[in-house]
Specification:
Blueprint: E1 2-5, E2 10-14, H1 37-50, H2 68-77, E3 86-87, H3 88-94, H4 101-109, E4 122-123, H5 136-148
Parallel strand pairs: 3-4
Antiparallel strand pairs: 1-2
Helix pairs in contact: 3-4
Length: 149
Amino acid sequence: MVLAASDRGLVGAWFVGQRHAPDWVAWPSTATPEDHPTLAAAARQLLEYFHQQRRTFELPLDLGHGTAFQQQVWQALLGIPAGHTATYGQLAAQLCHPTASRAVGAAVGRNPVSIVVPCHRVLGAQGRLTGYAGGLDKKVALLQLESTH
C-alpha cells in the first residue's frame, strides 16, 4: 500500500495499481513512514489490522480533497463497524438521498483512504459483492479478515 499525509492527517491509503489513485501512487518513493508521525501511525495501525490486532483506526484524517457530497459519503463510511456491511442504497437513504445509490457508489469508489475509511464494507443490492477500486479479490479478503476477527 501507498500512504500519503498532510499536516492535518492521513490523505490517502491506496493499493498499488488501485483504480482512481493518483498517478504518483505507482511511483517508487524514498519517503518512509518514519518521516511523518501520521504515516508512521497509519503504517503501524494497518499492520495491526492485517494481523487481527485492531478493528478500528485512531488516525487524524484529511478528507477535504473531495466534493462536499463525496466527503459526506466518506464520513458515513466511518460509521460502518468492522464485521458489518451496508448497501449503497442504505447509505443513500442515510444521507437523505434515497434515489442516489449510484452517486453514493461513485463517491465510495473514489474514497482515497482505503481500509481506514471502510469502503470495502459496502455491498450492492441484496448484499451482492460489487466492485472495489483496489480489486474485488481484496474486498473479499478484507471482509473475510473482519469476519474471522
